[in-house]
Amino acid sequence: MTPRAVVLAALILLLAAGCTQTKTTSSLAFERGVQVLGAGSPRSAIPLFSQVIGSIPDGPEPHAMLAMAFALDLQPEPALRQADVARKKRKPGEDPGWECIATGVAALSQRQPAVAERSFGQVLATAPKGSGIRNAAGLWMTLTLLMKSDSRQAVGFLERESASDMPGGRSVTPLLWSVLICGQQGNTGDAARSLADLARKVTVSGGAEGGQGGDLSACSDQELHERGIAGLREGRLTQAVEIFAVLHERSPASGDALIWTALASAAQGRWRQTQDALRDACQSGSRSSRSLANHLAGVASALEGNPHEMIGHILTGQRLASVAPDIMPRPTEAQAERVWVSDQLN
Q1: Which of 118, 119, 261, 322 makes the best surface tag, with the fewest CB within 10 Å?
Q2: Which one, of 305, 283, 301, lies nearest residue 293 by Cα?
Q3: How far apart are CA 6 and CA 263, in angstroms?
Q4: Domain count, the chain
Q5: pLDDT digits (tens, 9 = 90+) for 153-172
Q6: How many Cα atoms occupy the beta-carbon half-sphere of 315 within 13 Å?
């Protein structure tokens, strides 16, 4: 796995492939709505889910997904109304669905993190480990704790949620977020340790093991990247920042240089420089690099208590990504079941 692939694995999983649902007009509209929503375009998903509800209004899932679309589009009032409809349509004893995530997101946009924490907690208490909805609830819960300025609990929670049976690469998530969280709090020791661990995970076989000094202009892009990563791994943060600055000036789309610069700045306790580097990284570099930068900028926005900016960055990261991370809805086995009366008649 390449260094960039390892880093992107922190937040991204493939969309569920295929769907066992009967391909009626309504089910196709539903699937398309989920795909559009997962791709970071909630406003475009709203009419698709509304179409499903208008033709076959008997299942909870279209209302739950419409609630998610409204919540992510920063329309909390209709989001809460649709979430309430979805809850009422679920069978007695049925586990809560995406309407709980929508309620939490709507609460965050209204700056009510305590309400959001309760909503995400309902999913975490019932959804099985490794399921898409639980993973989404875990990431949104972490952002909620950051909004509450409870950084220590946020780091601990994310580490617990990411530790057990998740696919390879997922353990990078707490390292990435911990660098930003600890750095913003001024805990540079823990931030630097998390960054060094992250650098070890993305070390390329045969890469530079030190590389202090020397003529940087004579290095290839790959050599600069490897020397920068080695600097992070060995705690030479100032030198690493200098190396990544050379790399970015020479080749802006190479090596996620601005992202590494932002993380190194956080580990040095330079939060303003971290924000500046992330802001630049959101606008410069490869598509995948800009996607990751926006996700990390979302974490930084949560730390700053800015829910609208946080959601905006997450959506922008989604639109730039080629696949959908767990923090967004995606078709799952449960959602692919025949939940509408008309499906059962075919």
Answers
A1: 322
A2: 283
A3: 16
A4: 1
A5: 888 787 776 654 333 444 67
A6: 22
